[in-house]
Automatic annotation (TrEMBL), chain A:
Organism per entry: Algoriphagus aestuariicola
Membrane-spanning parts: 24-44, 71-91, 103-128, 168-187, 214-232, 244-267, 287-309, 329-347, 356-376, 388-411
Keyword match Transmembrane: yes
The UniProt record lists the keyword Transmembrane: yes
Keywords: Membrane, Transmembrane, Transmembrane helix
Domain of life: Bacteria
Protein name per UniProt: Quinol:cytochrome C oxidoreductase
Automatic annotation (TrEMBL), chain B:
Coiled-coil ranges from the UniProt annotation: none
Keywords: Membrane, Transmembrane, Transmembrane helix
Pfam families assigned: ActD
Name by which UniProt lists this protein: DUF3341 domain-containing protein
Organism: Algoriphagus aestuariicola
InterPro entries: ActD
Transmembrane portions of the chain: 57-77, 97-120
Length: 432, 176
């Protein structure tokens, strides 16, 4: 019910990124770096699978391939979280939502990682190249070569157009650059309009933001799908799934929503955002709960059709994973963490309204969806040389803490609350 | 005096007045039988002190019933009653059962929830609805107070409380 009367919230509040907070995040980063170092040393000296790989593929396995695969998993995963922050921000304006006004800046702050993610993604592609993407080998497109692959040759234009197949993947690189440039452009545009709104007030900025949000959402719809094909699906070059773009998007969305929820609860715990009450937390919880089910729906739709039709060229994707000693168990870990856990824990209203449940579930979901991307990338790049070890955990911690530092650093620079947003008053009275 | 037969009705024009009136009337210790309004008034159930609905529990149980029923049915049919090999899979191929299980879960949860709601809210088809004031289906909010439930307070006193809380009319209503 509406409580009448003046609201005295501090609208000028800014997140104070204290040295202590920075230090604890840096500690995690250092621990991650140490684990990563141990993992690399173990991989360099031990290896163990060298001979097997030599027999199976005719190509020796090098320890740095595992490093590249991990760089790629985390590039894609954390790009997704950053992108979903901007996406969810834009959705609030397109949907003319009022409830989310106090947490708008939190969503937007995730986008601070985007420029760095873009540089890392492009750099990793050029360094890892052949070790990650089978289609980058020139011999696949050479009809006179014994290893000529007519199927990949047929798909070649998607990577190499307008240049000759097997040369420089100009079309692929152009897409990667264009996507990041536009995403960062829209992110900066949103930041700029937010800044103007804070300084000048009035409703005109809201309308401006709504138009830009609409443009961004159209671009996002196309680019998020294509980036999923480019960056993840092209690893298994022969294989394809028509809902893969949606599947990756759903995984990104749940991770991004979890990150937004965790940040909101963290800031509330620090005494910021007094206007955010249980009702706002409840709504975030509903998004996490609902889109976890949406992710499961897509995961299962993809699996069931392939399983049921049992066409070898399609089912190889799941055979590679389910019948593997390395990846088989993680399929069930994936479903357990990303479906059964949020479904059962967040089902009741109380669980969605109390920070502690959401804190636990959202943290686990971030790990769970990392496992999802791990399962998308590693089987096609490393095969039985993959797995979760020191390198995986270390790299995840390094990326995670680096992204957190960047996001919180960006958050601390601006106002925490959109103080002149026309729907701020509405959000105080949000009640569900 | 018999229960559920003689009522005092307070008629209100405005939902804000109504919300404050409910708080005020309950504050004097008078027990409200029910409030009728032409549309859902936000926060009314809160000021009336209603406990949160237990309908989700019914939905969950009916949903579980649906899942169990669907899995048992398919398992029995495909494994025992009429075993069939489809697409080279096992007789009891679990992934095949998921879509039907999902559908039956949703179906039974929603049907069960509607049925429970209808019965609990006395909206069953054979129910004889009691109209306290026909205008509560148009433009008036009506607060009904059961006289038998408030034997400690004088009828005139209740009427005075209603009037002072902003009721535009205070009427008597009796049912057979």
């Amino acid at each position: 019910m509406a409580h009448h009367g003046e609201q005295h919230y501090n609208l000028e509040q800014r997140f104070d990124f204290t040295a202590a907070t920075k230090k604890s995040i840096m500690t995690v980063l250092v621990i991650g770096a140490i684990l990563l170092g141990i993992g690399i040393i173990l991989a360099m000296t031990g290896g163990g699978h060298h001979e097997e790989a030599g027999e199976a593929g005719g190509h020796a396995f090098h320890w740095y391939e595992r490093l590249y695969a991990n760089l790629w998993i985390n590039n894609v995963f954390f790009t997704g979280i950053a992108l979903v922050g901007v996406f969810f921000f834009a959705i609030q304006f397109a949907a003319q939502a009022g409830w989310s006004t106090p947490i708008l800046r939190i969503m937007l702050s995730l986008g601070n990682w985007l420029p760095i993610a873009g540089v890392l993604m492009i750099a990793t592609f050029f360094i890892a190249n052949h070790d990650l993407f089978h289609w980058t080998h020139a011999y696949l497109f050479d009809k006179n070569d014994p290893q000529y692959d007519s199927i990949i040759d047929g798909k070649g234009a998607f990577f190499y157009w307008p240049m000759e197949k097997g040369s420089f993947p100009i079309f692929y690189i152009a897409r990667m650059i264009i996507f990041f440039v536009f995403w960062v452009f829209f992110f900066n545009k949103f930041k700029q309009i937010s800044e103007q709104e804070d300084q000048l007030g009035g409703t005109s900025h809201w309308f401006k933001m709504r138009s830009w949000s609409a443009y961004f959402l159209v671009f996002f719809a196309v680019s998020s799908s294509i980036s999923a094909w480019d960056w993840v699906m092209s690893i298994d070059t022969h294989w394809f799934s028509t809902l893969f773009g949606w599947y990756v998007f759903a995984s990104w969305l749940v991770s991004g929503l979890s990150a937004i929820t965790l940040l909101t609860i963290f800031l509330k715990g620090r005494g910021y955002l007094e206007m955010v009450n249980q009702n706002h937390i409840h709504d975030l919880g509903k998004f996490v709960f609902g889109f976890s089910i949406f992710w499961t729906y897509l995961w299962f739709s993809q699996f069931l059709l392939i399983y049921y039709a049992n066409i070898p060229e399609e089912s190889v994707y799941f055979i590679e994973r389910l019948s593997s000693d390395v990846f088989g168990p993680y399929i069930f870990v994936n479903l357990g963490l990303n479906f059964f856990l949020p479904f059962l824990v967040l089902m009741t209203r109380d669980a969605k309204r109390h920070g502690i449940f959401l804190k636990v579930v959202c943290s686990i979901l971030l790990v769970g969806h990392w496992v999802d991307f791990f399962l998308m990338v590693q089987p096609g790049t490393l095969g039985h040389n993959g797995g979760i070890g020191f390198i995986e955990v270390g790299m995840f911690l390094v990326y995670g803490s680096a992204a957190t530092l960047v996001v919180l650093g960006g958050l601390a620079k601006k106002n925490l609350v959109a103080k002149n947003h026309p729907m701020l008053e509405e959000s105080y009275h949000h009640h569900i | 005096m018999e229960k559920d037969t003689h009522f005092i009705l307070g008629v209100y024009d405005d939902e804000d007045v109504l919300l404050h009136a409910v708080e005020k009337v309950r504050g004097t210790g008078v027990k409200i039988h029910e409030v009728y309004s032409p549309y859902p008034v936000h926060g009314l159930e809160h000021v009336l002190g209603y406990k949160r609905s237990r309908l989700p529990i019914a939905a969950f149980l009916f949903g579980m019933l649906g899942t169990t029923l669907a899995l048992t049915m398919q398992f029995y049919m495909m494994r025992f009653d009429w075993p069939m090999i489809i697409g080279g899979k096992d007789y009891a191929a679990f992934p095949d059962f998921i879509p039907v299980s999902f559908e039956l879960t949703v179906l039974l949860a929603s049907f069960g929830m509607v049925a429970v709601f209808m019965i609990v809210s006395n909206l069953k088809p054979w129910a004889q609805p009691r109209i306290f004031d026909l205008r509560s289906t148009d433009d008036k909010h009506v607060m009904a107070i059961d006289i038998a439930n408030n034997s400690a307070v004088q009828v005139e006193e209740i009427k005075e409380i209603l009037r002072s809380s902003g009721a535009t009319e205070v009427n008597n209503k009796s049912f057979e």
